[in-house]
Amino acid sequence: MEMYIWNTVIVLSKIVFYVGFSCIAGYTFFKQVFEQSESHNNLAIASLKWIRGSIVIALLANGLWFFASTGAMAEEGIHGALDPDMLGIMWDSSIGDGTLLRTIGLMIAILVLISPFKLKPVVLNNYLKQGILVSSLFLLAYTFTFIGHVSELGVFEKVLLMLHVFVMAWWFGALFPLKQACHEPDYEQLYSVMDKFGRQASIAVSLLLIAGLWLAFQLVGNVEELFSSSYGQTLLLKLALVTSILGIAAKHKLKLVPQLKNNNGREALYKSISIEMVVAFAILSVTAGLTSVVGPAN
Fold this sequence. Notes:
By secondary structure, the protein is an all-alpha fold. The protein has two domains: 1-143; 152-298. It has helices at 3-34, 41-74, 77-81, 84-91, 94-114, 122-143, 155-181, 187-220, 223-228, 230-259, 266-290. The two termini are 29 Å apart. The model has no long low-confidence stretch (mean pLDDT 86).
């Protein structure tokens, strides 16, 4: 089987995993958006089904990623991807460790979302579930430190990477519930949700950018490599997409969200968040390619 086929499967499976990872973060930190009023029960149920489905698909994609990585290493087509000796070698590598830990992290999230077990009082139950989901997110974020290019860097860079991917999941995972929140009939309540997210995002996104730029500098090494190497050029594409999504976020904070105070701008905000979701998906796609198909010269 041609290598480009394996690379395509690897990239696609990573994209699906990133989406599932973001969905866990979105549910963990923005669950209350779906549960603000009794009228949102149907919306909350539909959204929860969508989130569960995304995480289950991410779990399947994680397994597919392992077999595709084995096939790419064996370079012998489907037979190589299923060869017991090659599978054993890959399972004992960082790829196998990452597959196992990601499976555990995703399974924890799925079990929390489908578990009928409830504690009393309700607040304690919610805190317990949120705590378990946060632990799942940290476990998933940790797997990035020994699978990609940053695995060859120091502890400080690995911590920055965990921060970077955690905030990324928090931000991109928030887009779906925030888009759904635009159905909220009470403009004052909608403004409160959007304004609170905007204030949190101002700090979180700053951390994401600082961590991302530092890691990019460590991996690329110099400005010349940024323009001459395939890794640098792909990174520039990602930076362009990040710049565009920051522009959309700034438009929300400075223009569209303030309009909500005047009982106006709901539809414009809904459409703008939809565009932001498309750009976020493009960023995840480029990131998957950046960590799979191309690599830094260093």
